[in-house]
Queue: 2 jobs
Job 1
Amino acid sequence: MKNSTIISNENLSSDDDFSVDTDHYIKDWVIPFYHVKLGDWERKKNALLKIWEHNSKDNMISGDLHDQSTDYGNCNNYHSLIENVLYEDITDGLHALNLGETITVDTAWFQIYDNSRYHPPHNHGLGHLSLVVFIEFDEDHLPTTFIAPFISLRDGNVMEYIPKGVTEGSMVLFPSGIMHYAPVNQIESKRMILAANLTIDEGSRC
Ligand SMILES: [Fe+2]
């Protein structure tokens, strides 16, 4: 089985204009962010698409205007199936972030972005971690873009973070409460993602 590949933290910028000495920063408030290329991707992709086919496809609803197509809010009950496919990878991420031992996938949903479709800024509410897996993603697609919870001290602008090196098979873990959006899909081929909310378990799982 091919191993997953952790993508290095691009926030550790070597650009002097952006790197800062953090000796006097509040280190408890750093933002957890984990990007991995899922190993054994073809098998996992087929498994995820099968879950979509059998549990989600018929419930996909396109929003008005340019909203994406999603089955979010349709009382999805396939989160345990998603957990079966991704549990090891999610747990590896949890351990890398040093946030706990075990985790539960509470809710999951799929989203499809045809040409001109997007998802405006939003968050996933109070919670622990969320994830996005890029299931169909061309090199000309733009990844989920994250918005800093505070404005720039340098110029007062909103600060965004666009994860580097996102490809099909990338999985990103991030805090559920952080604002993010999917930029407009500007090409003909569809972009498809899996999203999920995760709860970090108290104690160990039996
Ligand atoms: Fe989201």
Job 2
Amino acid sequence: MAKASKPSRSGASTRKPAASAKSATTGIKLKPVEAPKPSRIIAICNQKGGCGKTTSVINIAASLAAMGQRVLIIDLDSQCNATQGLGLQMNDVEESISDVLLDPKSFTLADVILESPYANLHVAPGSIELSEYESRAASEIGRENRLKKAIAQVREHYDYVLIDTPPSLGLLSVNALNAATEVQIAMQSHPFALDGLHLLLETIELVQQELNPELKISGVLVTMFDPRTKISREIVDAVCAIPTLKGRVHKTVVRQNVKLTEASKLRKPVMYYDYECTGAEDYLQLSKEIAAQVKTSTKVTAPAKKAAAKAPTSNKSSSKSSARSTRA
Ligand SMILES: Nc1ncnc2c1ncn2[C@@H]1O[C@H](COP(=O)(O)OP(=O)(O)O)[C@@H](O)[C@H]1O
Ligand SMILES: [Mg+2]
């Protein structure tokens, strides 16, 4: 492993700050949440690449953080798009979640967590070495439990832990499903979206049976919805008709919106790129829907308003009504 340096358990390591020197620090001081309540650990899954998992993780996390919730993103994909999508530079990441998974005796999750440039939003960065986890941990006892154990050490400090998963149903995704209290399935409203869905549902069922009986499918996030096409509607209807997913498809669907791709190129959550675009609107609405799944306060409070005020917005006002992003 390239990163052999021993981290400081206190967080006072020599790690360089992440992307924003002002807001990213060398470590974090963890404080317990004011009103203790069980944090939700949500794995965003689908073995298909390009269906909007990372975009959903970043933008739901940013929306929840703007609502005043303490959020941790765990980037389990070796492509590290969630880490980079928050503006962190991979050159500045010295320790990552792969260190915690591959060498849990030397690295705790708290050792690798970084602040993001956004209030309430932390990230356990990914690294290219995650791609080695499958082969390196193949013969190790407890290989499916590593992430669960790591999260247990920091769980009380967060309201939400969102896990971005790789495009496969291998050991990393199994770790995510084992660690999670719930799984949200990201699904592009595309004709091929249903292919392979049975495999994902089977994997979830297997994890429920063998490892994590508490795991529940708490939602299906429909992404890249095109309200102009019949096929988009038909795909959503087909997903809603699957018995295991009945009643679990979120009412708010995320419409196709190029601003989401533009924001990811600029490595920001979309609400900090264009607060009024449909992408920002849909993810904020979807996040409220997710937050309302349990009785937590979902009121957008001062931090969100402040964030919104600070967020650079386009001059164009949104011409789309939010009703268009909501299923009838
Ligand atoms: N609602 C959307 N509208 C338009 N483009 C989107 C939308 N959601 C995601 N994208 C784009 O689709 C691509 C794949 O998304 P991503 O979140 O990286 O998928 P995954 O993590 O499942 O591989 C990215 O270029 C992203 O910007
Ligand atoms: Mg991804």
